[in-house]
Input
Amino acid sequence: MEFKEENITDLGRWGEAKAAGYLKEHGYLIAETNYRRKTGEIDIIAFDGPVLCFIEVKTRSRIDFGLPCEAVNSKKRIRLRRTAAYYIMENNMTGRECRIDIIEIIRNSKGVHCRHLENALT
Output
């Protein structure tokens, strides 16, 4: 996919693909991407060994208004938790160890910086 920085949708898709690659390199097994239900959306659902991980990806080309992870506000956190609960119910995974992570990616003229915040919504 060609990257066009002026199009935020393309930046977001690029970041999600970069995050999926990062997770695979670190031994995660990707179960689903862009899981959407009426409760919300989860960018990546993956397994870190036996742990079921719900991963929100935030990508930015600038940090003038804060780090990408800071965009996960209380409203987004509620939607993530509800959607994760829906996934668990829908896939009969009650009782499985789970966590919600954030991967923030900054892509600018200095390069690409990726930071994985495990269990970010405690």
